[in-house]
Amino acid sequence: MSELQKKEEVFLNDIREIINAARTQAVRSVDFCRVQMYWHIGKRIFEEEQQGKDRADYGAYLIKNLSKQLGPEYGSGFSYRQLAFCRQFYRTYPIANALRSQLNWTQYRLLIQIDDPDKRMYYELESVNNSWTARETERQINSQLYERLLLSNDKESVLAIARKERIPQSPLEIIKDPMFLEFLGLERKAAYYEKDLESAIITHLQHFLLELGQGFTFVARQKRILLEDDEFFADLVFYNRLLRCFVVIELKTGKLTHQDLGQLQMYVNYYDRVEKTAEENPTIGILLCTDKNDTAVRMALPEDNRTILASEYKLYLPTQSQLINEVNSVRKMVEEQREFNKRNEKENEP
226 phi and psi, to 5 degrees? Predict the structure, then answer.
C-alpha cells in the first residue's frame, strides 16, 4: 500500500468514526427521549391518582382506563403493565434531572424492580460506567453480581468503587466467586476437555471480560514460558488497568489440587520476575475450577497470600432461588471463617 493510499484509508476511517458516533448519539437521544416521556407519564398518573387517594382501587382503575384509551391510538407501548411501570418509575426516580441519558427504558424498567436502593444504585452506576447494554444489565442482575461481590467485600467498598470514589485495592474487590459462564453455550456433558473450555472462552471473549469485571484487557492465550529446556503454557493472560497488574488464569475442568496451585504460582512468579515493570503491582493468579476445597486452598498457600485465588465456575445460570441459597451458604461459610480467625487472634494475644 502506497503512502497516498494509507492517508486515504486513515481519512476514510475518520469519516466512518464520525458517522458511527453520530448514529450512536442519535439512537441514544431517541432512547432518552423515550425515558423522559415515560417519566412524565408516570408523574402525571401519580398526580391524578393522588386526587383520588380516598379510593384504594383508584390507581388501578385510572391506569386500566388510560390503557384502553391509549392502546388503540398509540399501540402496545401503552399497555396496563407499561403504564404501571411508568408510575413506579416516577415514584422510584422522582427527580427528572437525576435521570441518566446513558440508560434506556429497558434498563430503567429492570432497575425499578429492585427493592434494595443500594443494590439498585450499584447496577445503575455500573451500567453507566461500563456502557452495558440492556441485555448485559439484565444478565448481571440475574447472575447476582452485587451479592457475589459482597461475599468478600463490605457494601461501602463495593458502592465506592461503583461511584468511582476509589479504585480497587485488592483482587478480591473485583474477582467473583463463583463465576457464571453460561454464555459459553456448552452442552450439558459429564466432562469437558480444558482446551474446549478455553476455545469457548476465546470465542466469547467479550462476555468473559464482562464476567471477569472492571478493567480487564486480553493479553495472550497459551502463553509460552521457557524455563531452561522446559516449556510451559499459561492458559490465559490478561491485564487489569485498575489494579495495574498482569492476571494469569489457569482452567481446570475438575476439582483443583495443590499441584494446580503450585503450577499457577510458578506462572505468577515468572510474570513478576520477567514481565512486570517496577511501577506495576504483583501479578495475580486465578485458578478457575469446577470444584474446590477452601480449607485445602488456604493450607496450600501462605497465610499472607493475596495474589493466588481459586474461583469456581458454573456453566449454567441457576434459578434465582438457587442463587440466593448459594450466596447465603457462601456468606455463612465466610462469616464462620472470620469468627474462627477472631478467636485465634484473641487466644494468641499476650
Answer: -105, 115
Neighbour count for residue 56 (Cβ, 10 Å): 8
C-alpha cell at position 148: 457475589
| pLDDT (0 to 100) of residue 327 | 60
SS3 260: helix
The answer to whether the bond into 168 is cis (omega within 30° of 0) is no
The residues facing 246 across adjacent strands are 239
Render 270-288 in DSSP notation, one character per residue.
HIIIII--TTSPPPEEEEE
In angstroms, the CA 316 to CA 308 distance is 25
The C-alpha atoms of residue 297 and residue 80 are separated, in whole angstroms, by 53
Strand ranges, E, within the chain: 179-180, 216-227, 230-240, 245-251, 284-289, 308-314
Locate 106 and state its grid cell: 429497558
- How long a stretch of residues is the chain? 350
Adjacency order of strands within the sheet including 216-227: 179-180, 308-314, 284-289, 245-251, 230-240, 216-227
- How far does the chain reach from its first CA to its final CA, in angstroms? 76
Which tens digits make up the pLDDT trace of 245-296? 999 998 887 777 778 888 888 999 999 999 999 999 999 998 888 776 666 6
Among 113-127, 179-193, 260-274, 326-340, the range of highest mean pLDDT: 113-127
